[in-house]
Specification:
145 residues; mainly beta; Lipocalin; 8-stranded antiparallel barrel; 10 strands; globular
Length: 145
């Protein structure tokens, strides 16, 4: 039986189990590979933070966090996303208001996720949105850590 959705039900750390995109025709794609890794943290103070990346991303040749070649930086950006900000529950949805985001267009723009909570499993999906040039929905499964 699924728990009633409250802020407290989400509080904690969640590890990514799976992430795929679904197109209107049913086609599934894995933007960060089938073995993507990530964490979603929901705090009691009303803030959330999510980070997802492709597994086994190559390291930069130089050990300089502000260095790297243009190609290395592009690949790093294309294989990682994150955002953080305040969150609230609205029915069966969690709404995060990003204050920081790896995709600049999301800063200050509410990110709505449809929630399915069952025990230590959390399913989050998006309403249809433009992803890779077409309308798709994102589906992420998380397990409580």
């Amino acid at each position: 039986m699924a728990k009633a959705l409250t802020e407290l039900a989400l509080v904690g750390t969640w590890k990514l189990e799976s992430f795929h995109l679904k197109a209107a025709d049913g086609q599934l794609t894995y933007p960060y590979g089938p073995d993507a890794v990530g964490y979603y943290l929901f705090s009691e103070s009303g803030y959330a933070s999510v980070s997802v990346m492709a597994a086994d991303r190559p390291r930069f040749q130089a050990g300089d966090i502000l260095g790297g070649t243009t190609g290395e930086k592009v690949w790093a950006a294309e294989t990682f996303f994150a955002y953080s900000g305040g969150y609230m529950i609205n029915g069966d949805r969690v709404v995060v208001h990003p204050e920081v985001a790896s995709f600049p267009n999301w800063v200050g723009v509410d990110q709505v996720r449809i929630v399915e909570l069952d025990g230590d499993m959390l399913g989050l999906s998006t309403p249809p949105m433009l992803l890779a040039g077409k309308q798709q929905t994102a589906h992420l499964a998380w397990k409580r850590v």
